[in-house]
Design goal:
Chain A: InterPro entries: Anti_sigma_zinc_sf (IPR041916), Znf_put (IPR027383). Chain A: This is Putative zinc-finger domain-containing protein. The complex is a heterodimer of chains A (about 80) and B (about 230). Chain A is mainly α. Chain A has helices at about 5-10, 10-15, 20-30, 35-50, 60-75. Chain A has one domain (about 5-75). In chain A, about 70% of the residues lie in helices and about 0% in strands. The longest helix of chain A is centred in the middle third of the chain and has 18 residues, at about 35-50. In chain B, about 55% of the residues lie in helices and about 0% in strands. The chains are: A mainly alpha (about 80), B mainly alpha (about 230).
């Protein structure tokens, strides 16, 4: 496997969806090719950081409006 | 094949349909922030983005009883949001026309990055070098690194931000993203790769040179951040 093919599979590798027939070749290439291994590690690290990105807090009044709609629709019991 | 209903979805759905308010509040809290981030990829108006999310939740509430679980609950909700967003944001014709270009935004700097299906663009001419002593896992502990990511996210084309939110931040399966956004699998791969490459490149610049890219428009503090309060 060359670098072109390896990079082509990196998205699948990140998703844990490497095609069965390509897995061994991909892993061998990653073990042998420093730049590709570095690139994959950095993309993976970036992705993990993305998952940890905090989200904006939900303002109380907005939450209450949404919950009120839920109560009306589902006949929810009160808290 | 679309994502199948998860076992925990079935339990959650039962509770939501039975009027379990605590379960509903937990659902809203877990998804609302990402829904707002996704809504903002369809409109430049914060008020309209809020309306889109609000309407989405109303549609969720009304649709809970009829939801048949062909996809996961989250995927269903994201799909509702995208449909609402497209409807409500349609008036912003100029902006919409720009963001409909599925890939290859003009002037996009992809030098040194690989483009799926298009061969390499100077593959490893500028070889990626390890981030020195920085443990990649430590990135997620660094507020400054998260700032770098938040800024690059804000500045990237909407089409890329959209897929990054759904795939990398919310872990929506690729097949479901294709359905929700009406893009091909190939297009999704291209968009995802470009988005991830942008984030990697920004982190690379930050870790090597201390460069913190500024976001488009007004600088945006990290949400829920203690700083910049």
């Amino acid at each position: 496997m060359n670098c072109y093919e390896a990079v082509d599979l990196m998205g699948d590798a990140l998703d844990g969806r490497l095609p069965e027939g390509a897995r061994a070749g991909f892993e061998v290439h990653m073990a042998e090719c420093g730049p590709c291994a570095t690139y994959l590690a950095q993309i993976r690290a970036a992705r993990e950081a993305l998952m940890r990105l905090p989200v904006e807090p939900l303002p109380r009044e907005r939450l209450e409006a949404i919950v009120e709609a839920y109560r009306r629709e589902l006949g929810a019991r009160g808290l | 094949m679309p994502e199948q209903q998860r076992p925990d979805d079935a339990d959650l759905l039962d509770r939501l349909r039975a009027g379990d308010e605590a379960a509903f509040v937990a659902l809203v809290r877990s998804l609302d922030g990402r829904l707002r981030a996704l809504a903002r990829t369809f409109t430049s108006s914060p008020a309209l983005a809020e309306d889109i999310v609000q309407e989405t939740w109303l549609a969720v509430v009304r649709g809970l009883r009829g939801f048949q679980g062909r996809s996961s609950l989250r995927t269903w909700i994201f799909g509702i949001l995208v449909r609402r967003a497209r409807t409500l944001a349609a008036r912003e014709a100029r902006r919409a026309a720009r963001e409909e270009a599925p890939s290859g935004e003009p002037g996009e700097d992809i030098a040194g990055e690989w483009v799926p299906g298009a061969g390499r663009v100077g593959l490893w001419e500028g070889r990626p070098a390890p981030w020195g002593a920085v443990d990649p896992a430590a990135l997620v502990q660094s507020r400054e690194a998260l700032h770098v990511i938040a800024n690059v996210l804000e500045a990237m084309p909407e089409s890329q931000r959209r897929v990054l939110i759904l795939r990398d931040m919310e872990d929506v399966p690729p097949e479901d993203i294709c359905n929700i956004l009406e893009v091909s699998g190939t297009n999704l791969r291209v968009l995802l790769h470009r988005a991830r490459a942008r984030v990697r490149r920004a982190l690379d610049a930050y870790l090597r040179d201390g460069e913190v890219p500024s976001s488009r428009g007004a600088p945006k503090p990290l949400p829920a951040a203690e700083e910049n309060a």
